[in-house]
Design goal:
641 residues; alpha+beta; Beta-Lactamase; 4 domains; six-stranded antiparallel beta sheet; 23 strands; flat; disordered C terminus; GGDEF_dom
Amino acid sequence: MKDQIRKKLCLIISAAMLFSLLLNVLLQVHLAEKSMRRESENLFWQINQILVQNEKDVEQIKADFAKNCLINAKAAAYIMQNRPEIIGNQPELEKIAKLLQIDEFHIFDTEGNLYAGSQPKYFGMNFNSGEQMQFFLPMLEDRSLELCQEITPNTAESKLMQYAAVWQEDGKGIVQIGMEPDRVVEAMKRNELSYIFSIVTADEGNVICAIDPDTHKVLGSTDSNYINRDVKELGIKGEALADGEEGFRTEFDGEKSYCLFSRTGSVILGRICPESTMYRNISKNTLMLSLYLALLGVIIIAAISRYLDRYIVRGISSVNKKLRVITGGDLDTRVSVNTTPEFAELSDQINEMIESLLDMPNKLSAVLDIVKIPVGIYEYRLNMKRVMATSGMRSILCLSSEETEKILSDHGTFEAKLEEIRRCPEEAERGIYRLPWEEERYIRMDSIPYENGTLGIILDVTEDMVEKHHIVYERDRDFLTGLYNRRAFYSRFEGIMSGKPECGHAVLFLADADGLKKVNDQYGHAGGDDYLQGIADVLLSCPAGKKVVSRLGGDEFALLIYGAKDREELEVYIDAVQKAVSQSIVEINGQVSIPVRLSAGYAFYPEDGSDCSGLMELADKRMYEAKKSRGYEPRNKRVSS
């Protein structure tokens, strides 16, 4: 008896629990669908009101614009009637067009030939020149006509215009005006479905669209990806559109959805909501109810039977064991306890919770996308292979989808990729590195190791670094010539000299522009700038592979050539510079050409010294010795060390 009671009681409890869950789901489904229908009806009514009101506005604006065109045509005809002498005065006709605020102003003779007006390029055309102009042909037969044409492309340029024409009072000609219908076109745009759907706000995941009832193509949608697509391709049959006011379920674009459609005017309005969005609260409510019923069932069953108690305890023990593994970081573990329906359901819910946890990076990615922060966040545990990371990681590291999936599938591969980046430091002390596979792309990396894993962040700092490089460039460059300025040159000079292997044999070439004051006095400072730029171009033409060119200030220039294997190689480069100077001609103010003249001196490393100040002093001394003779120090008169 006890066994039968226990069995029946278990069946009753289980049946009651399942029935309650099913009833709860059905009720919530019903309420969700009812709410969907009510909201959709209100939304469709609002869209229809927008369409109707916009149509009225367009018609009113068209009527007002046509009336204004005819009034302007009469005004122009009145002016021509009273001032016939201005017909041949083109500036005066254009002035009248501007005064009347019209775009075109034409005068036709009694045969319909255009011979005067504000647009000389149209002279010679007539009412037979095109379909648009033929609209006014009846005026040649009936002089009482006053015609205003609909907005249409004109004959000459296919430009949207509205024309109106009237006879002059004396009958000597026809006056026609044309106006660009900007306001009308703008109003018509507001009645386009693309505009209307751009101002309609759809709930997350929902799609609101307008469908052509004949072709079944999507005319407008809150999701532009569906425009001009056939609804059959998206999973909706044509006959379902006519009976869609009560709502139905279907697979829309590969996703199970609930759909509602309603005929409004010349289109069918529709609203599609994914079931995952529509019923998203049902799972949570169902989970809460199932936990309550499961707890109640456990208490009752535990009180009735020791066997059932052990059965339940065994299930709980199994779940706890799995949970310990999960909390230890192994999120690939799944709970699968089927000893009772309740535990089977609990297992599913726990597994769903794990899936939700794994989905956290995607949710965090969505938040970061909203605030538009170029940052990627990652985490991995040592007892797990997979790296959890936000979606922004791929774009920040400039990787393909396949590469991203590969490195995230194993934390060892992921760390190897980060180590590859660390081998390209930009500002290592700040954790800033350059991506080795992408030019001008910089990231900042920080990580926090903990007992069983690592949490890290990768930030795209490309914009900041490019701006910093730009500031450094402007700081170190001469504004006129683009050469290094004095401060930057000295810094580069000292840096090169401090690295002896890189320096090799070097020569410091100092030059002073001869005659700059005379050029400034004769041709102005603009001419002087041209002269200085010409000198800079000559120095930059030096064929040496390793060189630093600078404008030290005023008319002083410096050229440092380094990395040569011996002095003879340096002398070849100096000869090339001398030759370039002797052959260089600078065009001043685009009018005259004058030769480049320099006074220069050299100092060789290591023959003339090994420190920067000594080389500068010696080169400067030799430059001024050469300047006394107002020219280069000849090749065969170089000062030997």
